[in-house]
Amino acid sequence: MNIFKSTSIYGRGFKRTGAENEYSIRIYTGGFAGVEAATERVQKEADRFLEESNLSSYEIVDAKRIWLPFSCVEFTLRFCSRGLRINQLGEQIAASDGP
Description:
It contains 1 helix and 7 strands. A hairpin with a 5-residue loop joins strand 6 (84-86) and strand 7. The chain is of the alpha+beta class. It has one domain (5-81): 2-Layer Sandwich (Dodecin subunit-like). It has one helix at 35-52, and strands spanning 5-8, 15-16, 22-31, 55-66, 72-81, 84-86, 92-94. Strands 1, 2, 3, 4 and 5 form a 5-stranded antiparallel β-sheet that branches. A two-stranded antiparallel sheet has the order 6-7. The mean pLDDT is 83.
């Protein structure tokens, strides 16, 4: 862990966006931490979220850097229910179906 790169979440965690199985989360950054450090953190948080829910996979569909009032990256993630996966068009399909 590098003391000059820090990331954190302040209580909110994943919040529904209104679209089916889509959530947003803000990862606050400090020091020299940028989008790369925030992406690593959101992947850890998403993996933890998967363990606690009936979901099986996710993809990051958007990442937006916000500088003020606090430096953070707001991510939008789309999760899939168990037995489903996300195809190249961003649609949920049965895990056994083709591309």
